[in-house]
Amino acid sequence: MEKDTFEDTTPIPGPWERPGEDGAPSLSELDDTIAELAATIDAATYRLLVAIAEFDRREGWALTGARSCAHWLSYRIGLELSTARDRVRVARKLEELPLIGGCMARGELSCSKVRALARIATPENEAELVTMARSATASELERLVRAYREVGKADVDRSQRQQDGRYLQLRHAEDGSVIVEGRLPPEVGALLQRALEAAEAEGVSTETPAQRRADALGVVAERALVNTDGKERGEPYHVVVHIDAEVLEDRHAEGQCSVEHGSAISAETARRLCCDAPVVGLFEAQGQPLSVGRKSRRVSAALWRALRSRDQTCAFPGCEQTLGLRVHHVEHWADGGETTKENCICLCRRCHWLVHEGGFRVTGRAPDGLVFENRIGQRLGERFEPPELPSDPAGALRAQHVEQGIEIDARTNLLDRWWGDAMDLDTAVQVLLAREGDDAALPSWSQRS
């Protein structure tokens, strides 16, 4: 008797659907997991950028003595400084781009795409850019940004007008201050902006961006006159400050404290100027000089080299400035502090101002016993404890997004359409120009047959 035979018609799963070893998820499941997690992280990154923009707008970083929000991010959450600057740039830009921001908040646009779009996006063209971003890779968007910017560089007539219209004027106001007014070609303006950004780290003001730029211009002028970070510590120029001995010893005492042929200054400013400067005692009676003492107490070249070798950068927590460093006496020499390695630290110009006039304090002995406090008495530089995270951070993010009505799955950040063809840069740039009402011709590189 013949036995019945049965043919198994169950399809054999291919490599894409087949589970991995020991019950590991299949490649298809991993594909969905990666896509969903990436979109979830992008949505969470949007919330991070919103918080950064708010923190920056309220200048919370200034309370910690940080130079900028980017420096605070680098110090507080461990971002590389250039990455931190980019995060702040995108965060500020997203405040005026609700469509792009909304797409990122829902996980539909990646952080890389938003980063590229933020360079050229405006409230007028963001709708077109969102449409393009949904059908393009991040690399294609980067090429679009470069192509769009190239159009402006090709306008020769505009460049000539910029060159012909350049000027710079200095005039004195009634109160003695100097008013600077000018118009610079783009390349010169970019050079000045870069110099100001590099020098802004040494500025002393922490009030407004405009005041910080004014301080930075002074640093640029100073560097043009003298090398502030030479091999040896020369004395290229002198500023004479008249200070009564009582004021130098007690900042609250009454007495004279002013720049020669200039206006009065605060006692704390005078103490900062004398922190690492050659001091010459001039004894007067009824306004007439009786005798002039010898220079004293300036940090020697040997001690300066030892301090630079030990500190290498500004000693203020979170500051990594290496140029234009000054020597600060932790206990001021007028209060009995000695000019020794243990009582001296390197500070940049800005941080030196902070610990004198800025309301910050530093106490202790260098290098390991220093304690920095901000204006409200909080200690700086203490090791931050890592935040307590849930056992499943990704799951917690998903739950938060669900509560906010944001639905994210493996198809959230999928391109709307893509058949492998490259983006038509000519058409894309023309669309953006049309939105701006710019009839300028495309540059020669785009005239392809």
In short:
It is built from 16 helices and 11 strands. It has 449 residues and is mainly α.
- C-alpha end-to-end distance: 78 Å
Major β-sheet annotation: 3 strands, antiparallel
Order of helices and strands: HHHHHHHHEEHHEHEHEEHEEHEEEHH
Class inferred from helices and paired strands = mainly alpha
Which stretches of 5+ consecutive residues score pLDDT under 50?
228-232, 289-295, 438-449
**Numbering strands along the chain, what is their spatial order in the largest sheet?**
9-10-11
Instruction: Work out the strand percent.
Output: 5-15%
How much helix is in the residues? 40-55%
Mean pLDDT: 76
**How many DSSP-defined strands?**
11
Q: What's the total helix number? A: 16
Number of domains: 3
Rg result: 31 Å
* Shape by Cα distribution: globular
Structure description:
The protein folds into 3 domains: 23-154 and 415-446, no CATH class; 160-225, no CATH class; 241-380, no CATH class. Residues 228-232, 289-295 and 438-449 have low confidence and may be disordered. The chain is built from 16 helices and 11 strands. A 3-stranded antiparallel sheet has the order 9-10-11. 42% of the residues lie in helices and 10% in strands. The longest helix has 31 residues, at 27-57. The chain has helices at residues 27-57, 69-77, 81-94, 98-105, 111-117, 126-134, 138-153, 156-164, 186-200, 209-225, 245-249, 267-273, 301-311, 349-356, 393-403, 425-436; strands at residues 167-172, 178-183, 241-243, 257-259, 282-285, 288-292, 326-329, 344-347, 361-363, 371-373, 379-380. A hairpin with a 5-residue loop joins strand 10 (371-373) and strand 11 (379-380). By secondary structure, the chain is mostly helical.
